[in-house]
Amino acid sequence: MTGRRTIPVADPRAQYLAHAGEIDAAMRRVLESGRYILGPECEHFEREFAAFAGVQHGVGVANGTDALHLALRACGIGPGDEVITVSHTAVATVAAIELCGATPVLVDIDPVYFTMDPEELAAAFTNRTRAVIPVHLYGQPADLGRIVPMARERGIRVIEDCAQAHGATCDGRPVGSWGDLATFSFYPTKNLGAIGDGGIVVTNDPQLAERARAFREYGWSERYVSATPGTNSRLDELQAGVLRVKLAHLARDNERRRELAAFYDRALAGTDLVLPAVRPNASHVYHLYVVRSRARNALQQALEARGIGSLVHYPVPVHLQPAYRSRLRHADMRHTERAAASVLSLPMYPELSDDDAQYVAEAVVMDSSRLTIGR
Ligand SMILES: *Cc1c(COP(=O)(O)O)cnc(C)c1O
Q1: How many Cα neighbours within 13 Å face the side chain of 367?
Q2: Fewest Cβ atoms closer than 10 Å to its Cβ: which of 249, 252, 284, 358?
Q3: Best of 187, 190, 201, 318 to mutate for ligand 1, by most ligand atoms within 8 A of CB?
Q4: Listed residue (205, 219, 185, 215) closest to 49, CA to CA
Q5: CB of 188 within 8 A of CB of 12?
Q6: What is the CATH classification number for the domain harbouring 54?
Q7: How far apart are the C-alpha atoms of 252 and 362, rounded to whole Å?
């Protein structure tokens, strides 16, 4: 290892630079068009993204949290209804459930794949359960082959939270095409990232799409006529234009993430870290490359000292957050709490060079063995 470097955990600027010519042209096209909200870019993007996710309809919205909120609203979910999801997720997943007035019920994850444990889900159903939100965390599909049929046989909606898994597949089918609806975020560091906020709701059900579409713009059935109560959550034309450019590169970008993950897998195989496991028949898109370490905090500090960024996703599970703790119903959370204490996300983005990935891997190997010997 030579010289000091600075390697961030994610690098949205590098992504802009990789496609700067196309992105600049798209932005100019929008600027000169005079249409800045819900115009042709958004319409094209909705169609292109829905096709990418293997579904019929897409409704562009302001962010991933709103996408979940609108999906729940489209299902008619509100006060008195329970929605089951995990605690080991972005707070947004749970916040969206409360935004529509419903009650979140949180269940534990399985310890290998970090996604909703179907056994725990089975134990959490009540006669008030109206929806389940599996989260495809880190780019890994949840166990849809079990979760979707469990919900269907009870007449319960499935809304997939795909904010971290654009392009992942389960049994060869894209995530986002399994549930009644699915939601994506285009926060700048996600696998498909805007240059600001953005999100989308996708579905095969034209009625659900129509309801989400009305809800995103004041509940309008036509201009200035609010047939139902709604809100303002629109995807603007600049974001849609940029997202169209990046969508065209997403499959290749995901392939690069898988290549980097395979490199890390090989390079870190001899350490005492627990490396990411991929569910059988799933294709992981490595939004994050997450290892588990018994000396997580010390490892993070040691990497920091070498200029290597890392993050913890997530340090405090939702059921222990000050805003939710002692208020939300949840089952035993042992795997969630263990994950929060041991996970560490290493640098992962398509523009990460082989050379920088090598530098990261060598540092992790050295620091993790030194830290473990010292214990
Ligand atoms: C990022 C994220 C969200 C929220 O998306 P925003 O666009 O930030 O509102 C929701 N769920 C998960 C799992 C996420 O990672």
Answers
A1: 22
A2: 252
A3: 187
A4: 185
A5: yes
A6: 3.40.640.10
A7: 26
pLDDT-derived band at 14, boundaries 50, 70, 90: very high
* Residue 64 Cβ < 6 Å to ligand 1: yes
As given in the structure block, the two tokens for residue 133 are: 């939100």
Predicted confidence (pLDDT) per residue in 178-216, tens digit: 999 999 999 999 999 999 999 999 999 999 999 999 999
Stated pTM of the model:
0.97
pLDDT of residue 119: 97
Please work out whether the CB of residue 135 comes within 6 Å of at least one atom of ligand 1. Answer: yes
Domain count, the chain: 2
- Distance from C-alpha of 213 to C-alpha of 223, rounded to nearest angstrom: 13
**337 within domain boundaries:** yes
Indicate which residue's Cα is closest to atom 7 of ligand 1.
64
pLDDT at 1: 54
Cα 1 to averaged position of ligand 1 atoms, centre (Å): 36
Which ligand 1 atom is nearest residue 67's CA?
Answer: 9
Among 214, 247, 280, the domain-final residue is 247
For 42-95, write each residue's pLDDT tens digit: 999 999 999 999 999 999 999 999 999 999 999 999 999 999 999 999 999 999
141 part of a folded domain: yes
For position 329, which CATH number holds?
Answer: 3.90.1150.10
Q: Which domain holds residue 102?
A: 14-108+115-247
